[in-house]
TrEMBL record:
Assembly and binders: Component of the nuclear pore complex (NPC)-associated TREX-2 complex (transcription and export complex 2). Component of the SAGA transcription coactivator-HAT complex. Within the SAGA complex, participates to a subcomplex of SAGA called the DUB module (deubiquitination module).
UniProt entry keywords in alphabetical sequence: Activator, Chromatin regulator, mRNA transport, Nucleus, Protein transport, Transcription, Transcription regulation, Translocation, Transport
Keyword Transport included in the entry's annotation: yes
Name the UniProt record assigns to this protein: Transcription and mRNA export factor ENY2
Protein purpose: Involved in mRNA export coupled transcription activation by association with both the TREX-2 and the SAGA complexes. The transcription regulatory histone acetylation (HAT) complex SAGA is a multiprotein complex that activates transcription by remodeling chromatin and mediating histone acetylation and deubiquitination. Within the SAGA complex, participates to a subcomplex that specifically deubiquitinates histones. The SAGA complex is recruited to specific gene promoters by activators, where it is required for transcription.
GO cellular component: DUBm complex; nuclear pore; nucleoplasm; SAGA complex; transcription export complex 2
Organism, as annotated: Adineta ricciae (Rotifer)
Length: 97
């Protein structure tokens, strides 16, 4: 079952890339996150972490690892729902997936 899900995800991702829909969805997500102030929140959070740990004491990879859970949690449900709706609309138009 996990194998089948991975195949479906890979196929969907390939179709989204081919059609340009993935890029359009990324642009929409960026726009919505900017409107919500998510980027500013994350920027402030990054600055706080760097201040706490010291610039010389944290790598970019470590910073990304630390901020990722909070970044995901800060995405409003309304944006998640909108993105899911866009994806479902795409799928309904491309039922061959």
């Amino acid at each position: 079952m996990a194998d089948r899900n991975a195949q479906i995800r890979a196929s969907l991702n390939a179709k989204l890339i081919e059609s340009g829909e993935r890029e359009r969805m990324k642009q929409l997500l960026r726009q919505r996150l900017m409107e919500y102030g998510w980027r500013d929140q994350m920027k402030a959070y990054c600055k706080d972490i760097v201040k706490q740990k010291g610039l010389e004491n944290i790598t970019v990879d470590e910073l990304v690892q630390e901020i990722t859970p909070k970044g995901r949690a800060l995405v409003p449900d309304s944006i998640k729902k909108e993105m899911l709706t866009v994806l479902r609309q795409y799928l309904s138009k491309h039922e061959e997936l």
